[in-house]
Amino acid sequence: SPDGQRLAVGTVDGLLTVYDPRTGKSLGRTTIAHPHSVTRIAYAADGRHLVSGDFNGNVWIWKVEDSVPVGAPVEQAPGSSISSIAYSTDGHQVAVGNQDGVVRRGDTETGQLVGSPMSAPGAVVAVAFTTDDTEIVSVHGDRVADPTVRRWNAQSGELLATESIGLLTVA
């Protein structure tokens, strides 16, 4: 978590557990979150929510304190592993990228996907919001051969710019 008080762990069995990183003890019940391996987890800036994605393209938004999902799981891209997840700084949206090169936005209050998919060639290696939450930055490629950075309008999903550089990830 952003304050260092919690550590969320996802497993190949689809389990999601929150631990105290100082003691290693679970801070509540283990949640059987996903029918497939958990591939990505991200905390909201306030530490009260987290989002998780799995190997089969399912995305869940969770309340950390009671391990309760916000809405039903969202099938972001059936059969396409979630490869990157990021919260907006205001906590109202998540950006989710998958192996098929698609970035989607989700509403953290409803747990539903919003807007049109933002799609580009190459798996999504990384995704992040700008500090003012007006843009989503995604890196597409295979981490080695000519990754491409794309900037998208965070509300409309419109592609704003593309640049091919030797970058490995964004944060």
Unreliable spans: none
Shape: globular
Average pLDDT metric? 86
- Backbone structural class: mainly beta
What's the count of strands? 16
Elements, N to C (H/E): EEEEEEEEEEEEEEEE
Task: Explain this structure.
It contains no helices and 16 strands. With 171 residues, the protein is an all-beta fold. Strands 4, 5, 6, 7 and 8 form a five-stranded antiparallel sheet that branches. Strands 9-10-11-12 form a four-stranded antiparallel sheet, with no helix packed on it. Strands 13-14-15-16 form a four-stranded antiparallel sheet, with no helix packed on it. A hairpin with a 5-residue loop joins strand 9 and strand 10. The chain is globular.
Question: Characteristics of this structure?
Answer:
four-stranded antiparallel β-sheet; globular; five-stranded antiparallel β-sheet; mainly beta; 171 residues; 48% strand; 16 strands
Question: What's the gist of this structure?
Answer:
With 171 residues, this protein is an all-beta fold.
Topology summary:
Layout: E1 7-10, E2 15-19, E3 31-32, E4 38-43, E5 49-54, E6 58-63, E7 68-69, E8 74-75, E9 82-87, E10 93-98, E11 102-107, E12 113-119, E13 124-129, E14 135-140, E15 148-153, E16 159-164
Antiparallel strand pairs: 1-2, 2-3, 4-5, 5-6, 6-7, 6-8, 9-10, 10-11, 11-12, 13-14, 14-15, 15-16
